Amino acid sequence: MKFKCVIFDLDGTLVDTIADIAASMNKALTAHGFPSVPLEAYHDMVGWGIRRLASLALPAEARDDSLLVEKVAAAATAFYAEKPLVHSKPYPGLPELIAQLRQKKIKTAVLTNKPDPVARLVVDGLFASSFFDIIHGDVPGAPRKPDPASTWEIVLELGSTPRETIFVGDSEIDMETALASGCHAVAVSWGFRSRDVLEKAGAERIIDTPEELLSVINDL
After folding, report:
1. So what's the pLDDT on residue 195?
2. N or C: less crowded end of the chain, CB within 10 Å?
3. CB contact at 8 A, 88 and 13
4. Which of these, 190, 217, 194, lies nearest to 4 by C-alpha position?
5. How far apart are CA 220 and CA 213, in angstroms?
6. Which domains, and CATH codes, for the chain?
7. Is residue 173 a contact partner of residue 184, using CB atoms and an 8 Å limit?
């Protein structure tokens, strides 16, 4: 087998989480006296981590208040941790894909900029416990995507190399991470970003169904 490892992004790649993310952030915004943001707007705002999301969700005139941004981010994280799986569910075919990869003895991991405890709640709540060898969310003080450090850490721990690893994601952040780390960059079309964004970000392949990843593994 040419590839030993597949690293997946979480939001927009494995799981459709946008409604729960939006609900939590909007609850935090209104709790601090600000208007909520339409659900559609969140598709272009997620991916960089909760603090950046809070900044983007706030009105422009409030974004320079770092203390306020931290407060809104912390409130949104707390609200999300209380109810992370009201609307969220795996994209169709993803559980079956992971099971097939496991049968082929390919290691699997999740790397996300979602806070680590919440990432684990989502993954553990929606997937079998044996599906992923590593779940790696945002940890205070640690570099987050697109910095390649966490990707290299996962690759090393799973006994692979970047060239033996496929990085699967739905955003320009994921493609930048894959390219920076030397992994193969595979994008999914069912997530939160457009095909045009993914192409411009340097995706080697864009897949339209989970099953296509198996073909990519054979073709790359």
Report:
1. 96
2. N
3. no
4. 217
5. 10
6. 5-16+88-219 (3.40.50.1000), 18-82 (1.10.150)
7. no
Q: Residue 6, SS3?
A: strand
Task: Quote the CA–CA distance of 151 and 15 in Å, as a whole number.
Answer: 20
d(CA 99, CA 85): 22
pTM: 0.94
- Nearest of 62, 172, 60, 73 to residue 114 by alpha carbon: 73
Taking only the tens place, the pLDDT of each residue in 171-180 is 999 999 999 9
Helix (H) or strand (E) holding 73: helix 66-82
Helical packing angle, 18-31 and 66-82, nearest 10°: 130
pLDDT in tens, 117-163: 999 999 999 999 889 999 999 999 999 999 999 999 999 999 999 99
In contact, 189 and 214? CB cutoff 8 Å: no
Q: Is the pLDDT of residue 52 over 60?
A: yes
